[in-house]
Amino acid sequence: MVVSAIASTPHGDDTRTFGPYVDGQSLYYSFINHGKESVVLDLKNDYDKSIFINMLKQADVLAENFRPGTMEKLGFSWETLQEINPRLIYASSSGFGHIGPLKDAPAYDTIIQAMSGIMMETGYPDAPPVRVGTSLADLCGGVYLFSGIVSALYGREKSQRGAHVDIAMFDATLSFLEHGLMAYIATGKSPQRLGNRHPYMAPFDVFNTQDKPITICCGNDKLFSVMLPTY
């Protein structure tokens, strides 16, 4: 299997500029692009566009995360892609998907974390909402995109036709709210920030000790009874 990462300029992916660096190369970029071919194409250039079309004819999957409408402006609508390669799986990931009132809105990971409610649940009660320590919304969107691609490839074995997979980072991240989302639907009340505690389990927190903090998580009565003799 060959995976090609296509960028529009020699500078390419923004993550090439993220430190730290080893031998002049971003470790961040290497982490998320390890094993991929790097291809520079300007899809506004007719010659580069012809190269891209030839790649599409041989491809199983095309994945992109442009704002909705960008691929159409470049001349690669879903209908056009089907004409180029009827078996192509076209996977799109954007902030809010290709339909709905927010479809044209740009989005970064932190914006999606804030709008989805993840940040409202993260942090301490008397402090402002906190961004999760990793790019959670980006990762949620990626997991759902992967799942959609695999499902579409499986379906293609029977249909012999491609499919358009449309993933919204907002929708994907919203599904990771777990109990907070269900509690809001049931009660109409927004979940409260609890720090490292859990709304339904105890003890469930980070505790300071003489040398370093420890985490204790008792998820049920059996685990609680096991822990008690240690005190």
UniProtKB/TrEMBL annotation:
Domain of life where this protein originates: Bacteria
Enzyme Commission (EC) number: 2.8.3.16
First-tier enzyme category under EC: transferase
GO molecular function: formyl-CoA transferase activity
Keywords: Transferase
Matches recorded under InterPro entries: CoA-transferase_III_domain, CoA-Trfase_fam_III, CoA-Trfase_III_dom_1_sf
Protein's UniProt keywords contain Nucleus: no
UniProt keyword annotation of Transferase present: yes
PANTHER family: SUCCINATE--HYDROXYMETHYLGLUTARATE COA-TRANSFERASE (PTHR48207:SF3)
Protein name as catalogued: Putative CoA-transferase
Source organism phylogeny: Bacteria, Pseudomonadati, Pseudomonadota, Gammaproteobacteria, Enterobacterales
Gene: frc_3
